[in-house]
Amino acid sequence: MNSPYAHGRVPTAPRLLVSLLVAALVLAGCGGGGGSPGATTGSGQTGQQPGTPTIPTTPTTPTGGPTPEDLNPNLLGDAFGTYWNRCAVPRTGVDFQGKPFPDKQGTLLDELKFLRAWINESYLWYNEVPNTFKMADFTNPVDYFNVLKTSALTPSGQPKDKYHFTYTTEEWDKLNEAGIDLGYGVTWKRNSSTAPRTWLVTLVEPGSPAAAAGLQRGDMLVKVDGVDFVNASDAASVTTINAGLFPETPGVAHRFTLQRGSVSYEATMTGAEVRIDPVKYVQVLDTPTGKVGYLSFETHNAVSEKELVDAFNTFKVAGVSDLVLDMRYNGGGLLYIASELSYMIAGPSQTAGKIFARQQYNDKTPPQGAIPFLGSAYGFSSPNPVRAGTPLPYLGLNRVTVLTTPGTCSASESVINGLRGADIQVDVIGSQTCGKPYGFTPVPNCGTTYFAIEFKSVNNKGFGDYADGLAATCQVADDLSKPLGDRSEGLLAAALSYRATGTCPPASRARQVPMELVRHPAREISILTKPR
C-alpha cells in the first residue's frame, strides 16, 4: 500500500477532497493523527456519503437476511491475502506514473468481501459496525463501504466518524503525490449545500483557470451556467450546477456569475488539471521586537516537503525569531510531513527523546512504533523531491502562532498537538479546528482508494482527546477582504497584535455565520443533493 501515515486529508465540502501519510499514515481535512510517512490525516469532511443501496436483479447471496459471512466477517478470510485486487472489472495498462495496475479478474462479491474483511481487521471501531446489511443488496462497493462504519455520536452530538470517504485511485494519487487537482484552482467557503447558499472565494491558485478568469478572495458565487446558484433547488438546476462546479474531464468551459461587493461580473472557466502549490506565501515581517516569519501552508502532501524545507531555509538565513503558521485552509495529509514541519519549528534540543505522535489502534492490531520528531527528510516522491536523509533546517523556537478556521484539520491539528506535547507554546488565532485526532492508511482496490479510521493519535503527553476540535486562544473571524499575507488581514493582524501585547483583540463580528471549506477534489458529497 502507498502510505507513510496519513491523517488523511478530510473532504471539507461537497465533492471536496479529503483529509489527509503516503506509504505512511494520513490524518484527516477536509478532515488527525498519523502513523508513518504514508498515512494521512485528512481535514474535516467526509468523502462520498452513503447512498440508497440498489438491489441487483440476480442476487449473489440468498435474500431474506444477512448471510453468515455478512454477520461474521471472520469467516471471510484475510482481506489482503484473499480478496485484494480481485476486481469485477479489472483495469488494464498503467497508471499516471507508468506502473502496471495490480488488478486480477474477480467479482463484485470479491470486492465487497474485501471491504468487510478489511474493516473487521483494521477499522478502529470495528465492533460498532452494524451487521444488518446484506452484500446482496449492493450493486457497487462504494455504497457498501459507506455503511461499514460506526453510527455512534460524540459527547457534543456530532457523528463519531465523520471521516469515512473514498477517492478514485487516480485522483488521489495525482493529488497526494503530484499535487494535481482536476478543477479550476479555486477554494470556496460555504454556509450550506441547500438554499439559500452563500459560497465565497477563499483561495485562487496562481496560474489556474480561476486566476485567468479574474476571481478574487471574497467574491460570492451567484450563478452557474445561467442557473441561480443561491436559490435553485429543483433537480435540473442541481444537475447543471454540479456539472459546472465539479468538471469530470478537462477542457470543458462553464460560465459563472460572481459578485464583488455590490458589483456583479461574468467569468468563464475551463476545467483543467491544476497543480496545487501547498506553500503559497513565505514572508519575513519586520517588527519592533524582531523578524517574524509568515508561512501560508495548505496541504501536507508529498510536494510540500521540498517547499517547506526551502521556506525554513529562507527564515533561517533571514534570522527569523518567531513564526506565524497560517493553516486556516489546511485539511491535513501526511503525518510525516507534519512531524518534519514541527521539528523545523522547534529544533532538536526541544524535541530530543520525545515523540511527535503515537498511534492507538484497535485491539486486534499489535502496538506500533511512534512517530518521532523527524529531523531529516523522508524523501517523498514528487516532481521536485528532497533527497531522503537530508538534514532539515530548523528555527529552534519555543513559541509559534497558528492561524486556524474550522477547515484546519487532521495533520494540521497534529502539528498543534504534537508541539504542545513537547512543551512548545502554541497560540491559536482564529476559530476552533475541525476535530480529527484520527488517521488512516489509504487502501486502494480496483480503482477506488478507501479511507477508514484506523487509529487515534496522541502526543508525547498522551493527549489526543479533541474530537470536537482544538479551541482558539483568540477568536477571530477569517477576513476575506484582504489577501493572505497582508499585515492588515484580520487573522494575521490579530496574531501580530497578540504577540506584541498578549491580549486578544475584540471578537470579530464579520461573517460569524458558520462556514465550511470546499475545494474541488472533494468528491465526497453532491453539494446540493446529499446530506453531509
From TrEMBL:
<feature type="compositionally biased region" description="Low complexity">
    <location>
        <begin position="38"/>
        <end position="68"/>
    </location>
</feature>
<dbReference type="InterPro" id="IPR041613">
    <property type="entry name" value="Pept_S41_N"/>
</dbReference>
<dbReference type="InterPro" id="IPR029045">
    <property type="entry name" value="ClpP/crotonase-like_dom_sf"/>
</dbReference>
<protein>
    <submittedName>
        <fullName>PDZ domain-containing protein</fullName>
    </submittedName>
</protein>
<dbReference type="InterPro" id="IPR041489">
    <property type="entry name" value="PDZ_6"/>
</dbReference>
<dbReference type="InterPro" id="IPR005151">
    <property type="entry name" value="Tail-specific_protease"/>
</dbReference>
<feature type="region of interest" description="Disordered">
    <location>
        <begin position="36"/>
        <end position="72"/>
    </location>
</feature>
<feature type="domain" description="PDZ">
    <location>
        <begin position="176"/>
        <end position="241"/>
    </location>
</feature>
<dbReference type="Pfam" id="PF18294">
    <property type="entry name" value="Pept_S41_N"/>
</dbReference>
<dbReference type="Pfam" id="PF03572">
    <property type="entry name" value="Peptidase_S41"/>
</dbReference>
<dbReference type="InterPro" id="IPR036034">
    <property type="entry name" value="PDZ_sf"/>
</dbReference>
<dbReference type="Pfam" id="PF17820">
    <property type="entry name" value="PDZ_6"/>
</dbReference>
<dbReference type="InterPro" id="IPR001478">
    <property type="entry name" value="PDZ"/>
</dbReference>
